[in-house]
Design goal:
The chain is an alpha+beta fold and 592 residues long. The protein is 46% helix and 28% strand. It starts with 12 loop residues before the first helix and ends with a helix.
Length: 592
């Protein structure tokens, strides 16, 4: 064996079973040793521990860990050691022999990154075509009481050449360590691995991979090895390989995030047994979606809470990616599945706030860009309109104020009249649009939504008489509606219809949610009605509710609405069913 050969030992059992032909296939933190470029394709943090039982009491051990980051690629660290004992040495020919051992070790640090190439496409969320990686290693060799150390660097590349076809390249000892015991150090030999690999699905559950490796070691010539792997889902893997005339074989078992691999390699000096334990952490988006697909087949309260956690995990990933509408949709699903979870409501508010802030920033930047473009094209009045709109959205914006003042200073009296005319036209258009939207909400009987649209418009145009009059009329309608519902509630209560009284009070509260007297009356009616419900009716309502949620998540809005109505008939105090019914009605309204 040559200097540094212990670092070319199989880093894990999968590599050993494939006779080293894992340069393009490695998918855990042992990539730090096999091909650091593959670190960039890891989607979960994880650790791996490997033990190799070699011949004559020699043992090889490796521990690696890797953590993908969104901004900086994947960072990894590891420790490798190989030791052999049972040697005897003499200081002189007449001295008694004394035992000694030989050990080699290395501390590793690695980094893998996958840059976006022009042909990857901006929307490509799968693995990118190219990955690059580096591994720094600080090595130490010890023979009896003498020791030497050095440092080196490996580099890797991983390229996706086509569907299922990858090419892995590793340059080992690109910067070669030269640990010195006495005198000059012995430089580690450089080597180059070139490994194509092809993966092919064989059906819904089975897949296969095959790989070839050409290794060129300095002063040793070229070595050829290859291997194949047959997988059953993520559960089981069977592997075979060969390097020259030395075969290898292995098996892997994966349960959840835990993988146990075993391999045996046959060589001239005997059998080498390798065992690797890999522990990953977290769930990928695909795994979360699979959990969701399995979960909505049949739901109960416990299932709903577990499934809600899957939706929350998916929403967290979407929030980090800036996909706020997707996150909001999944948070809504989580809230329906686990309606008693107060934390979800806070997450919904946070998602809404971040989405609104993102939209606001984009609108402000678009207005700045449009204003500059209009001025560059010689349209100062149009530029002024954009600056004015920006100032209305962000009153403290100094740039907008300065630009408006500068443009106003250069305007003629005719320009000012024209600018004022444009301002009035814009106000009339904005007010007309707001009132049209409010009228649409009125036609649907949603006084609160109509009033909110008009109120937001009046914040921009506080002196507009149309908005003032519309709000006054809407306020009168809300008061009349609330009074009518209070009368209905009183009449229902007199008839002993507690459910009817609660329905009337909640209808009033939906249109006037800030009315403390209404909130107090509705809470009292809910408590009174809840006392009349039997445990059996509550359980039945819960069962029907989760059937309704299941139908809603599958897109069957008619069935979801029918079941939500049934829940409210069983338990009129079931607030989650009322929320579900509102979402069903909205989905029906906006579904194509």
């Amino acid at each position: 064996m040559g200097a540094g050969d212990f670092l070319r030992q199989d880093a894990d059992a999968r590599t050993a079973a494939l006779s080293g032909a894992d340069t393009a296939l490695v998918d855990d933190s042992s990539a730090l040793l096999v091909n650091p470029a593959a670190l960039a394709r890891l989607v979960k943090p994880g650790v791996a521990a490997t033990h190799v039982a070699l011949f004559e009491g020699t043992a090889f051990d490796a521990v690696t860990a890797a953590a993908p980051t969104r901004r900086w690629g994947t960072l990894a660290a590891g420790y490798v050691s190989q030791g052999t004992g049972g040697f005897e040495g003499r200081a002189g020919p007449n001295d008694a022999p004394s035992p000694f051992s030989v050990s080699q070790s290395a501390v590793l640090a690695g980094w893998g990154v996958s840059p976006r190439l022009p042909w990857d496409g901006a929307a490509d969320r799968g693995p990118r075509r190219l990955a690059l990686g580096l591994t720094y290693k600080a090595v130490k060799e010890k023979i009896a009481s003498s020791a030497g150390s050095g440092a080196g660097l490996d580099a890797g590349l991983l390229a996706r050449l086509g569907p299922g076809l990858d090419l892995g390249v590793k340059a080992e000892n690109l910067v070669a360590p030269s640990p010195a015991f006495v005198g000059a150090g012995v430089r580690y030999a450089r080597s180059l691995d070139l490994s194509p690999a092809y993966s092919l699905p064989l059906g819904p559950d089975w897949s296969a991979s095959a790989a070839l490796r050409l290794r060129r070691v300095e002063l040793e010539g070229t070595q050829v090895s290859g291997g194949a792997e047959l997988r059953y889902g993520r559960l089981l893997a069977l592997r075979v390989g060969a390097e020259g005339t030395s075969p290898s074989a292995g098996v892997g078992l994966t349960v959840g995030n835990t993988t146990l691999d075993y391999a045996v390699r046959f060589n001239d000096l005997g059998l080498a047994h390798t065992v690797t334990l890999v522990q990953r952490f977290g769930q990928t988006e695909a795994e979360v979606e699979e959990t969701i697909r399995r979960g909505i087949r049949r739901l109960s309260r416990g299932d709903g809470a577990r499934l809600a956690r899957a939706y929350l995990s998916k929403a967290d990933d979407e929030m980090q990616d800036g996909r706020y509408p997707d996150a909001r949709r999944d948070l809504d699903a989580a809230a329906l599945l686990d309606p008693g979870n107060e934390d979800i409501a806070g997450r919904v508010r946070a998602a809404d706030a971040r989405w609104q802030e993102k939209v606001r920033r984009q609108s402000l930047e678009r207005m700045r860009s449009e204003a500059r473009q209009e001025e560059d094209e010689g349209n100062p009045l149009a530029a002024r309109q954009y600056w004015q709109s920006l100032l209305e959205m962000q009153p403290g914006d100094l740039q907008a104020r300065e630009e408006i003042a500068r443009i106003d200073g250069a305007l003629t009296s005719a320009d000012r009249e024209r600018a004022e005319g444009l301002r009035r036209a814009r106000e009339a258009n904005d007010v007309a649009l707001a009132l049209a939207g409010a009228a649409t909400q009125l036609s649907r009987g949603d006084l609160r939504a109509a009033r909110e649209l008009a109120r937001k418009a009046r914040e921009r145009y506080p002196r507009n008489p149309q908005l003032r009059d519309f709000l006054a009329r809407t306020d009168d309608q809300v008061k009349a509606f609330v009074a009518a519902r209070l009368a209905e509630a009183a009449s229902a209560r007199a008839r002993g219809d507690a459910a009817g009284a609660l329905a009337a009070l909640e209808a009033a509260l939906r249109q006037s949610p800030d009315d403390p007297d209404l909130a107090r009356r509705a809470a009292a009616a809910q408590a009174e009605l809840r006392r009349t419900l039997t445990p059996q009716s509550r359980r039945q309502a819960e069962q029907v509710y989760y059937k309704a949620v299941e139908a809603y998540l599958k897109g069957d809005y008619d069935e979801a609405g029918r079941l939500a109505d049934r829940v409210l008939a069983l338990d009129p105090t079931y607030e989650a069913a009322r929320t579900l019914k509102a979402k069903v009605e909205a989905a029906r309204r906006y579904a194509p």
